[in-house]
Amino acid sequence: VFASVGEAIQFGFSIHNRFGLFHFVRKDGIFEVVFKNGQSRGICMLSKIEEISHVKSSLKNISFDTWVFLDLDNTVMESVLDLGGDQWFSYLMRNAASDSSAEPIIKLYYAVQAHIRSQAVEPEIVLMINALQAIGVPVFALTARGPSILQATVRQLSEIGIDFSKNKLRLSSDLQYDSGIICCDGKNKGHALSRFLEGCTQRPRHLIMLDDKHPHLLHVQDAAQRFNIDFSGFRYAFLDEKVSQFDITKANLQLAHIKERLPADAQDAIDSLQLLPESLVVADNYHHFKHGFF
Hints:
This protein is an alpha/beta fold. The chain is built from ten helices and twelve strands. Strands 5-12-11-6-9-10 form a six-stranded parallel sheet. Strands 1-2-3-4 form a four-stranded antiparallel sheet, covered by helices on one side. The chain has a two-stranded antiparallel ribbon with strand order 7-8. Helix 3 packs across helix 10 (264-273) and helix 6 runs parallel beside helix 7 (214-226). The radius of gyration is 22 Å and the shape is elongated. The chain starts with a helix and ends in a 21-residue tail after the last helix.
């Protein structure tokens, strides 16, 4: 209850009931209850996770002292094709024959990104990012992608009109991030965010995170609490139905058309994973999906 009231009144509030007058004062990201005798006790930090279906639902939580962190795949952008998207990668990992298959899958995923065009999940996300940057609200990407495909990632984002490097915030040059993008390389996003915040010369009072995967939000929430930063997490559900209808057959057909353009180790990964069975008929329909390739 206190948290919800605190969100409405940013710096504190008072309640008068039969026990007397209580003042709730915000200090270092934590609300303190101040009793009539002047004694105080910290009670809570603002921290919540909720599900939304449209990015505009997160705007009501943004203020001048908010930093915004956005997942990329299936939150900011998605593959134009069935190939190369997060659901394609997840399908391969779920159906991997053994733990040793993970490395060639990751290698293949990274190689494919150099050839795949992306599109905004919602057109509004591009407008929102640009508008927030224009008024000085810092917006960062916090992605499970690795730094080895940073160049391909920046290229995909640029094509849809997004540039995370436009933040006006001054940050330490020692921070391990580039172009406004924090690459977690498949590791815990909360740990990556903690390392980022530790290197910042200043920190926000409030942090927002949008991600289509709930576990990532929990990890980021833990990191925010460690630094006494208010947290609003949003499990972004816009693509849930589309993800559930993913068709690996279409993805394999698209993969077959670019196999020869991939590096040798990626082609070896395709063969070792047996992604393109001999029965696969590669029809002459490249023109149907060529718009999805660079």
